[in-house]
Design brief:
By secondary structure, the protein is an alpha/beta fold. The protein is 31% helix and 19% strand. The protein has eleven helices and 14 strands. The termini are far apart.
Length: 378
């Protein structure tokens, strides 16, 4: 029997300290090895118990989670998943934690199934599994957050929502990588969209790639980051401070303008359609297409149907295989597909799935991806 994933639960709420272990241990591969009620106790328990992953509340007495996170990552680094309230301040604090070294986020709200991962136990287990495999020393340094300048929303009339796409297939065992799919290469200057996808470790990776895109980029950028509702707006705000391009969370019926980065909202599905010669976002509630909200397969599927190969697709770090089948469709149509390589991926799941089905045009270290995307877009 393989060794269990050892989890330390840190929360000042006795209810959460009771609830989380029951949910976590529904999967026998996990073992909750201890609890802590505040940040100081968390630092001590991490050193004593040496867990494989920690769930860490943000707002606690004695020492808050953000302060404890900095101490833990400096002295005894371990993968940490933040447990955050679905509030504006909670989301901003969570994005700060992700910049300081946390791996992922669990929403703490208990009143909504769509916004509460604790009622979707499979996603809780997936997040903890992914976190336990992360190389914790590879995360970005803190970035100061200032008030963002909003990107204006241009509404248009949207067509009826597209029919639901099939659910993303379950991850398959690793197979020998096939030769890249033969396809006519994307001609420089033909691309109409840069599509960037990520999951676990994605916020850190996005902070490496997106600020390198030039202010005169000739296409819009759509970012699909697996993240709960409320947190994607905070992600867009944080990225806006670092990027030469404007950044915003995309809204329904919003025109996708060249030189702007649009972050797909958490808890929803985002597609792209065309109206009067312009690319437009269609943001709708999930209809059972995918466990991921937003889903790369849903977004990329609409892009493949609309634009064919006139796309540059980037697949960054993340667990699972969301996006692999639709990135293959894009590649077969002639799109240029760039995947993050294993050595720089926090979790080499989604990039591996794209590479192993032959859809990758290039497999590159994180620091080289922006330049390659700029070249592909032309």
């Amino acid at each position: 029997m393989s060794q269990k994933i050892r989890v330390l639960v840190v929360d000042d709420s006795s209810f959460m300290r009771s609830m989380l272990p029951k949910l976590i241990e529904k999967d026998s591969k996990f073992e909750v090895v201890g609890f802590a009620e505040n940040g100081e106790e968390a630092i001590q328990k991490v050193a004593e118990l040496k867990p494989n992953v920690v769930t860490l509340d943000i707002e606690m007495p004695v020492m808050d989670g953000l302060t404890a996170l900095k101490h833990i990552m400096a002295k005894t680094p371990v993968p940490i998943v933040m447990v955050s309230t679905l509030t504006e301040s909670g989301a901003a604090a969570t994005l700060k934690a992700l910049s300081d070294g946390a791996v992922d986020v669990l929403p703490k709200s208990l009143d909504s199934e769509d916004k509460n991962v604790f009622r979707q136990t499979h996603l809780l287990h997936e997040k903890l599994t992914a976190a336990a495999s992360v190389k914790v020393g590879d995360f970005v340094q803190p970035v100061q957050l200032a008030a963002p300048t909003p990107v204006p929303v241009t509404p248009v009339s949207a067509p009826a929502p597209a029919a639901p796409t099939a659910s993303a297939p379950a991850p398959q065992p690793a197979q020998p990588a096939p030769a890249p799919v033969a396809a006519a290469p994307l001609v420089s200057g033909q691309a109409k969209l840069l599509l960037v996808a990520a999951s676990t470790g994605g916020p850190k990776a996005l902070q490496e790639v997106l600020p390198k895109l030039p202010a005169n980029l000739r296409v819009p950028v759509l970012v699909v980051q697996h993240m709960p509702a409320q947190f994607t707006a905070a992600l867009a705000d944080r990225l806006h401070q670092d990027c030469q391009l404007g950044v915003c969370e995309v809204q329904n019926r919003q025109l996708l303008k060249p030189g702007v980065i649009y972050v797909a909202p958490g808890g929803m599905q985002t597609r792209v359609f065309e109206a009067q010669g312009h690319l437009v976002a269609d943001v709708q509630s999930d209809k059972g297409e995918s466990p991921y909200r937003p889903s790369v397969d849903v977004a990329a599927g609409s892009v493949a149907e609309l634009l064919g190969g006139k796309v540059c697709g980037v697949m960054l770090t993340g667990m699972g295989d969301d996006g692999s089948k639709t990135y293959l469709q894009l590649r077969q149509a002639g799109a240029h597909i760039i995947t993050q390589d294993e050595s720089t991926s926090a979790v080499y799941g989604m990039p591996r799935a794209v590479a192993e089905n032959g859809a990758a045009s290039e497999q590159l270290p994180l620091q080289s991806i922006a330049a390659a995307a700029i070249k592909a877009v032309g």
